[in-house]
């Protein structure tokens, strides 16, 4: 009694040599490329949406915040790409743009929203007493090893 192979198996056996021949031709004409990893898509960062969620902004406030942040982004790019501005002066210019944008955003907020809005420390102020410093943060981020030498 003869065994009847399923149609899909017959088709696979018939097509496989042709596919291998195509792959062999391609391999001869194109250099081998090795992919080490595929780039991950960059997550979309939307500071206006984060502010809207944190401060419970209405649609009008959100639209105005988006407009202000877009203007800020353009101004900062201009500062960094302008060769006539010294590198030392760029930081101060960016700080001024940020301060102006923060003031404009504050002007849009209600009193309750202003209380929740980020309030930077005054210039020259020190971190709160007992707050972790840079050294503590770095030690916390450093991998820990146990007695066996295993890294955690």
Describe the 3D structure.
With 152 residues, this protein is mainly α. It has a domain at 47-119. The protein has 6 helices and no strands. Helix 2 packs antiparallel against helix 3 (59-81) and helix 3 runs antiparallel to helix 4 (87-108). The termini are far apart.
Write the layout of secondary structure elements.
Blueprint: H1 7-29, H2 47-55, H3 59-81, H4 87-108, H5 111-116, H6 134-141
Helix pairs in contact: 2-3, 3-4
Quick synopsis:
The chain is built from 6 helices and no strands. It has helices at residues 7-29, 47-55, 59-81, 87-108, 111-116, 134-141.
Could you name the key traits of this structure?
152 residues; 6 helices; 60% helix; mainly alpha; extended
Shape type: extended
Average pLDDT confidence is 74
Sheet-strand content, in percent, reads under 5%
Task: Sketch the major β-sheet.
Answer: none
Q: What percent of residues adopt helix (DSSP H or I)?
A: 55-70%
Class based on secondary structure composition and strand pairing: mainly alpha
